[in-house]
Amino acid sequence: MRTDFVLREVSTGLRRNVTMTVAMVLTTAISLLMVGTGLLAVKTIDATEALYSDRLEVRVALTQDVSTADADCTQPICAGLLSTLENSPLVDSVTYENQDQAYARFQELFAGQSVAELARPQSLPATLRVKLVEQNGSTEAGAAAVKQAMTDQVGVRTVIDQRDVVAKLFDFLGGVRNMTFALALVQAVAALMLISNTVQVSAYTRRTEVGVMRLVGATRWYTQLPFLVEAVITGVVGAVLAGVGLIVGKFAFIDSLLAGIAQNGVIPPVTLTDVITTSVYLVPIGALVAGVTGYITLRLYVKV
Amino acid sequence: MIRLERVTKMYKTSTRPALDRVSVEVEKGEFVFLIGPSGSGKSTFLRLLLREDVPTRGSIFVTDLNVAKLPRRKVPRLRQKIGCVFQDFRLLNNKTVGGNVAFALEVIGKSPSTVRKVVPEVLELVGLSGKADRMPHELSGGEQQRVAIARAFVNRPLVLLADEPTGNLDPDTSQDIMLLLERINRTGTTVVMATHDHSIVDSMRRRVVELDMGRVVRDEARAVYGVGR
Questions:
Q1: What does this protein do (chain A) (predicted)?
Q2: Can you name the CATH fold of A64-154?
């Protein structure tokens, strides 16, 4: 195989269809950028889930009278609830938060906001904060058991499962992920068609060359390789651009967008390492997809 | 060198066969004219030899290769033994004369040193030494056909197929091209030339295979184009 020959053919091919080449590179870049964003979203969601799974608890809010009367959960009603919870095999630990502690936390949580000034210790319920034992990687069963055991008991006002609140966040993140992937898919179809089309145009503009090559007995490799290499090069360039786009995107958008919540530990930050790893994955993906598309196109549509 | 045994070629779009039980044998080093009106099957004949198409029935041998049964991956091996020249030259307009000839060697993987050695030799053979750096559009039609012949011959094929090679050329230039083909034939290369050109066939006095409606109607040594045609 004469490498210099193939490279010369490839470079003329790419320059001859320069607008088409650019379009192909950009479309590939955008679709891979979306794939990359989707992958990062998945990674963040997973990390967030892991971050929360050991923090999440079920809160049993007590009624007003019990809350006011009992500062350390020693009186019969509260103590009874406490022991019921502690005896459950699905419960890891239970802590009692009285009205003063609840008030202190409330002040901390809403510092500087008007609700903080309006709240009084007496208006906040005391709570039993229940940490659950994981079963099969989930606290589902524990949460259900606690809810069932506590709801409508004397002294219990409401049972709050924090997982319900967080589930909404995960739903949102999952939605973002699905949307990114859906867009990536549409974009990828466009990119594939563009690659296929470019290969066909490329083969058409070089039909005389290809005709001569076939006539003088060039092997399939010689006739097809320039087209394949062209496709792969645009795929790789597209992937590199997508990777650069991801890194720029991290600094330009994600960092400022998520700065507040990431610093508070609400969600884990998107690290540069993650972004670079994802970008690196995109390159072989781009090369492979472009190469396979090119090959199939040549097989199906182009007589070379 | 070339043997066709009761070769029939049907095209899907036609009810009449393009070739109908054609049997022809061409010895090594022969010069054969393939004549007949348009649509008589000359082009199909050449296409089958090149395995651009496969016969519906019958078998074709070129050298030791069974063309009709040749697996796809061995087709390049067949085509490397056959040179091809056409009426419309089919030169690459963005390459020089030398580049056009070299291309035929490069794409079958010949080394640069071979290319540098062989290309000037064959350009000299066809009478174009000194014009290696010209572009095809700077040459006359006759010269362009010489380049095409040089490209077809540069890999020293056993067979040279020429499809109306003088079709676009004036009579004098045509004579020159015929002299060149004759010279190539004298090197031992078998030449099969499809043509309409009476005067050429008549002046050369070589074997003539005449096709009509896909059948061989005449196969005669040292023949002329034919009376009253």
A1: Part of the ABC transporter FtsEX involved in cellular division.
A2: Alpha-Beta Plaits (3.30.70)
